Amino acid sequence: MSIPTVFADSEVRDVLEKAIAGDRLSFDDGVRLFATHDVAAVGWAANQVREQRHGNTTYYLKNRHINYSNVCKYDCFFCSFFRKSKDDEGAWEWTVDQVLDHVKDFKDSGLQEFHIVGGVHPDLPFSYYTDMLSALRDAHPGVTLKAFTAIEIAYFAELTGKSLTEVLSELKDAGLGMLPGGGAEVFADRVRYKVCRDKADSDRWFEVHEAAHALGIPTNCTMLYGHIETHEERVDHLQRLRDLQDKTGGMLSYIPLRFHPDNNLLGSKKLGEPSGLDVLKNVAIGRLFLDNIPHIKAYWVMLGIKPAQLALAWGANDIDGTVTWERIYQMAGAETTPEEMTEQRLREVVLEAGREPVERDAFYNVIEREPEPVAT
Ligand code: SF4
């Protein structure tokens, strides 16, 4: 595959030729991709690499979110979700029985995954988390429990005085199937100091993920972009993810998370949100730079449905799931995006984008069964 004539004069032609030839991009290549205004050329190349690996397939799954509490001992400046105390307006914390009640209607519904994250709760004991996982596992056998960011896991180790391996082993014994990959934000110390200085640092995020991979627990990975980070800091972030993947091979997908400015301190300082082109560029450069992470996700809850459809032509090969009851991005200004989609609608969204919807489980195994029919 050679660069089409229309992109022959692109200022990043050499970088794009490397990527579509399967050669690894350098740090400088990544910075040039973020800096270029040749966004159409970047998108074209990302789509080539996507189609080389996945053809027309776009994965989705039937899942449900469980945000068990939004009480958090930290106060990240980009976060609209947390409350300092359970007595604050808009705060909640569920008992294990309330968690079970929240998902009781999904028994034997073909659900593949519970996505479980919360704030870093200052008072709940570690047994709450193991009890929650084992209760969910017993009530919903066969549903993968994708639970807890690296920040939550690091806190559990602090809370119990145990090693990360011990904490993760106990969670695995209780039913933990994989980690969702949040809490990464931007790894650069400068950015973390300005937006989330109190929580686990980037080295700890990597220690958690490496410990999980060593125990056979796969993870996803993320970057929260579009606030105060530089292009160099974005590429540094991607490079560190790529280095970990070279070492462990334990990451299934990369999810670029767009910053939403509503109801948080960064947004109140008049920081805008990333442009549509920046959103697409982050998807595309994720695909081109992270040559060893198989799946790039267009997380529709956070992008919105139409941008997510576009992202499927800019390198993404996964649109996430039916979701249901997502709070984190809804509270940050994604209210115009629905909180859930039926499987039928999700498949329609993928078909409208010219892609082939393929149902998967949490680990990207294809589900062989008849999907709900799509309206014609
Ligand atoms: S991003 Fe997570 S750790 Fe930070 S304040 Fe929000 S809930 Fe707490």
Features:
binds iron/sulfur cluster, 4-stranded parallel sheet, 376 residues, 3-stranded parallel sheet, TIM Barrel, 10 strands
Topology record:
Elements: H1 13-20, H2 27-35, H3 39-54, E1 57-61, E2 63-66, H4 96-102, E3 113-116, H5 126-139, E4 144-147, H6 150-160, H7 164-174, E5 176-178, H8 189-195, H9 202-214, E6 219-225, H10 231-248, E7 251-258, H11 265-268, H12 276-289, E8 295-296, H13 300-303, H14 305-311, E9 318-321, H15 343-352, E10 356-359
Parallel strand pairs: 1-9, 1-10, 2-3, 3-4, 4-5, 6-7, 7-8
The protein binds iron/sulfur cluster.
Iron/sulfur cluster binds at residues 72, 74-76, 79, 81-82, 119-120, 151, 196, 199.
Structure, described:
The chain is an alpha/beta fold and 376 residues long. It has a single domain (58-359), classed as TIM Barrel. It contains 15 helices and 10 strands. The strands form 3 sheets. The chain has a 4-stranded parallel sheet. A 3-stranded parallel sheet has the order 9-1-10, covered by helices on one side. Strand 3, helix 5 (126-139) and strand 4 (144-147) form a beta-alpha-beta unit. Helix 4 (96-102) packs parallel to helix 5 and helix 5 runs parallel beside helix 7. The model has no long low-confidence stretch (mean pLDDT 93). Residues 72, 74-76, 79, 81-82, 119-120, 151, 196, 199 line the site of iron/sulfur cluster.
